[in-house]
Amino acid sequence: MAAPAVAVRAVAWLLLWEAAGFTCSPATTFNNTHFVSGIRATCSEIILRQEVLKDGFHRDLLTKVKFGESIEDLQTCRLLIKQYIPTGLFVDPYELASLRERNITEAVMVLENFNIEAPNYLSKESEVLIYARQDSQCIDCFQAFLPVHYRYHRPHVKDGETFIVVHNPDLLMYCDQASLRGVIRFRFDSFGKTIEFPVLKCWAQSEVTAPCTLNSKDICQWNNMKYKSVYKNLTLQVPVGLTIHTSLVCSVTLLISILCSTLILVAVFKYGHFSL
């Protein structure tokens, strides 16, 4: 009696697994696994990662965005990163113009009427729009490049360093409305229930007005995207001077200025040609 009972239980378990969609051929298993992972993609699977390259006062801010699923159905969509630049940093608009001409990056300042030579305590926060490009090595990834520079800070009494916090940017997406109608916005899970396309579910209700492309005068309504950041905020360490060195620095600077000015005057009178 024990053997028939075990057999009945085994058959019952097999029927339950088959009804739940867990039994299939190897090829079907691979396809369903990829399919279900796409269905389960949530806003937390849109991952943003920022890192700073180079050393010194002149750095490169690299932003990478990875979607949790294939975005082949959204090829008509564009990704825009709105980066907030704190007072301790600045972006040179003339440098951006040169990089755009060489097709290195597609970034533009929101407002360019600010002093790039001002120290951090006399500066204001600025904003940069960066049109992200699709990563050639990752079909579901975008990346953006932005050169940033440290501003001068007030000298400290004891600690010879300060910190700059770069907050996470706004992630914006715009899709061509005509092409978006043809996108399969709903999929079916293993139980036949319709689920909205995951990337579209991550669109926030708020919209941001910005140019459709870098060189376009047309204005588009970009949707603010929800995402998960690898780091809460990006923190940069900046060396600053010490107030106890003020007298020494001023004295040495003055002496070097006098010496250089004297050498220039000697060279002018020695090798210069004057005519009355």
**Helix run count:** 6
Shape: elongated
* Total of domains: 1
Order of helices and strands: HHEEEEHEEEEEEHEEHEEEEH
Give the end-to-end Cα distance, rounded to a whole number of Å: 128 Å
What's the rounded overall pLDDT mean? 77
> What characterizes the major β-sheet?
6 strands, mixed
Total DSSP E strands = 16
Computed CA radius of gyration, to the nearest angstrom: 29 Å
Category by helix and strand content: alpha+beta
Q: Report the uncertain regions.
A: 10-41, 181-195
Residues in helices, as a percent range: 25-40%
Report the portion of residues in β strands.
Answer: 25-35%
InterPro entries: PIG-X/PBN1, PIGX
Pathway: Glycolipid biosynthesis; glycosylphosphatidylinositol-anchor biosynthesis
Protein name: Phosphatidylinositol-glycan biosynthesis class X protein
Family: Belongs to the PIGX family.
